[in-house]
Amino acid sequence: MPHSKKSPIDTITKPIQRFIDREKSGGIILAISVVLALILANSPWSEDYHSILNNKLGFEWGNSIYFKYSLHQWISDGLMAIFFFVVGLELKREIVGGELSHFKKALLPISAALGGIILPACIYLLFNPFGEVSKGWGIPMATDIAFALGVLHLLGNRIPLSVKVFLTALAIVDDLCAILVIGVFYTADISVVYLSVAFGILLVMYTGNRMGVRNIIFYSILGIGGMWTAFLLSGIHATLAAVLAAFVIPANVKIKEQVFITKLQNSLNMFSRIDREENQPTLTVKQLHVLEDMSSTIVDASPPLQRLERAMHPLVTFLIIPIFALANAGFSFDIDVRSLFDSNIVVGVAAGLLAGKVVGIVGITLLLLKLKVVRLPDGMNRRNLVGVSFLAAIGFTMSLFITSLAFTNDEFIIQAKTGIFLASVIGGLVGYIILFRCRNGKVPHHTKKRTCE
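Request: output the structure for the sequence above.
Response:
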């Protein structure tokens, strides 16, 4: 069977591509970014590290300056909007044809996610009911999908696919609720004019979808140049614009599978019949035309939503989230430990993430099982459920993001980050240990007397 010749550059790029394609790689890169941020924040370069993040960037036109924000704000409002755009694409895909597409399948992860959102917020407010500290109630609500799935994938085949699907669906619902909380509760003064402009642009994008516009550039220009800018100026956090933009990206195909197969086969037959001189390195004009037709056919057979999601996922996983972690995870250990407990933020965040997530997710699920409203997915058991709920307590990226919106006081920010770190490390370790003890929902051979149920 003929095979393509391996070029020297493949020796370099193929191992990199294999690493990128591995699902746990994102969690590894994120962990490295966190460690690097902590090193920088506690090194002789600490002042430079914070100074760079506080530098302001903007656009000048005549005597006016527009969009002048610190680098930290650009990362939070700009780069993280791309992250939320991909989250929106994933959410729409799940709703259109995934785990959230059928009510019965979606009820369990949605209910579990809501339990793991409401209870953490209540626990936080129990410890911090009044004043500025109460604004952090949204911090323990969120699950870091990259870290949680990264830990889960370290377990390999020990965990059935149904458990991974359940955690993914739960985390996506979790992210959607966090986005709504950010958009509604963590906003500045709202400008009705700019908000009207934003929704007008959204309507144009939706109309384009309904009319069959599938050009990614059309949606990019309106989404970034229009919606994101209008939302940023409206006072509502721009991440909400990213999610709404994702929801109007077409998720349908232009040609059906059988038509695609027939057209591609015809093109292949045509390509094979075109005469070309042997050992000629270039293709003929006719061959190029056939290849262009094949490329167009492939584009018509793939939904723009999935093309975008697949193309942008590595960008988000290996660039945007690590940059966000570098900008937000660094805080100095040179602090008075007693000052961490000047308020109840540390306790509220840590207890909210650990106790709130675990009790909320497990409690709601067991209640629905008792009422026979839902059943656990095939291959999943109660022990898996407890392990997954501890992984959901890893609230890293989203929790840090909400922290930056909730507080301006540096002490409160440090206290919130401490609570996030404690809960995320404990949740990740405990979840890993619980799930490690079971193989595909069955009892390990060397512990036959122990049950996983």
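Residues 26-187+237-252+303-447 form a domain with the Na+/H+ antiporter like fold fold (CATH 1.20.1530.10).
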